[in-house]
């Protein structure tokens, strides 16, 4: 096949491109320039938006012996990922920008352009597997598994995707990079959010949304416990940084239970009030033939799986959890998996709209 290898400048994408070439594919490397000003995003070797990353990707392509190009996709990235990130927080939701980048940039904008240029598929360094049956599965390295952020891909996109690293641990990928003479063998993994240079998400949002003071209230009594400078600075399940002026009667910590943008209110309460037993979600992507299945669901990247019964329509995804979950935030993805000896299979995903507590059903 004629394939386009997306090369971030990290070790995973470099080894993935090399493996694709070894497999006999006609490989062309491309680095995505995602920052309008690379110096305003991350510096050093921690992200995917720096000048250093572009140079590392080019050097890796030279060692592998493949053509290499840089595609400027800064405007697309800003509109589909950065602006979406800000808008979601403003609406009281907690987005996953890595998931949105995979959906809108790497497997929509890039894949569409690649196909238009005559490529058959896009190769990435994601740790996930595509079986001979075309089903997306978890990586053998559960600590690095990225099937959660890939579960948003459609069947048509998966049919044109290649994930060469799904059968290897991260340790083995680094060893192979060193064996191949790739300078990125020891390069640190990226962390946090690539477009927030200092890691200060709350400060990043305040610069774009402005200060918006409001109340923090007790979820059981409605009592005002403190104030905040912007509800967008909080997420469901958060415990630290609440700066409450009224301690809990029992001395236990409080957690963020809900965020209401209309009233600019953050509601807090004890940890047990975070528990939900039903999760509703929208924009489902579903690969299973049955619309109702017993499976396992994951509610956050790298979060634990929970047994559930899932019912899916064209517009809604409802998971009835068989054991309560905590910290379920609107805007995150819910991903359904079917346990399988060959690796857990992704059945589908959707964007969480609400977590419902058992006491709220009455």
UniProtKB/TrEMBL annotation:
Give the record's keywords alphabetically.
ATP-binding, Cytoplasm, Disulfide bond, Nucleotide-binding, RNA-binding, Transferase, tRNA processing, tRNA-binding
Supply the PANTHER family for this chain.
MITOCHONDRIAL TRNA-SPECIFIC 2-THIOURIDYLASE 1 (PTHR11933:SF5), TRNA 5-METHYLAMINOMETHYL-2-THIOURIDYLATE -METHYLTRANSFERASE (PTHR11933)
Tell me what this protein is called: tRNA-specific 2-thiouridylase MnmA
Could you name the Gene Ontology cellular component terms for this entry? cytoplasm
tRNA-specific 2-thiouridylase MnmA-like central domain mapped to chain residues: 203-269
Which residues are named in the active-site annotation? 101, 194
Query: Which organism is the protein's source?
Result: Actinoplanes awajinensis subsp. mycoplanecinus
What SUPFAM superfamilies does the entry give? Adenine nucleotide alpha hydrolases-like (SSF52402)
Q: Which GO terms describe its molecular function?
A: ATP binding; tRNA binding; tRNA-uridine 2-sulfurtransferase activity
